[in-house]
Amino acid sequence: MLTSAIPSCARGRRAASEPAPQTEWSLTVVNRHSLDISVYVTYDGQRSHVGVVPATSTATYVLPPHMIAPGRTVRLQANAIGSTRRVTTDALLVRPGQHVEWSLELELRQSSVAVW
């Protein structure tokens, strides 16, 4: 009887050695620029290519949780393809499950970013 009670008590709990589940985060890039934009995320000194957003279009990416480990900040970078123009955000603190929306304007330095 005691052995059947142990499994029912353990249900719903993680073993001490199991890591806590990690949650992805998402990035939407609204490209109002006349050129295609190559998007990167920089974290811990690493730069990771996210994708290319065609001119005057929007793209959403689901990104892995390791980019936003606790206490880590990220920066977003946009490079206009066929131009030397680019823009980089200030450091952003993004938590698991949050959404980032980055609006890239025709004049890249006037772009804005929101995290929620």
The count of β-strands is: 8
**Termini separation:** 49 Å
How many whole angstroms does the radius of gyration measure? 20 Å
Report the principal-axis shape: globular
Count up the helices: 1
Order of strands, main sheet, comes to: 4-1-7-8
Structural class: mainly beta
* Helix content estimate: under 10%
Largest sheet: 4 strands, mixed
Q: Uncertain runs with pLDDT below 50, 5 residues or more?
A: 1-10
Tell me the fraction of residues in β-strands, as a range: 35-45%
SSE run? HEEEEEEEE
Mean pLDDT: 88
Describe the structure.
There is one protein chain. With 116 residues, this protein is mainly beta. The protein has a domain at 36-116. 8% of the residues lie in helices and 41% in strands. It has one helix and eight strands. The protein has a four-stranded mixed β-sheet with strand order 4-1-7-8, with no helix packed on it. A four-stranded antiparallel β-sheet has the order 3-2-5-6, with no helix packed on it. A hairpin with a 2-residue loop joins strand 2 (37-43) and strand 3 (46-53). The radius of gyration is 20 Å and the shape is globular. The N and C termini lie far apart (49 Å). Mean pLDDT is 88; it is low at 1-10.
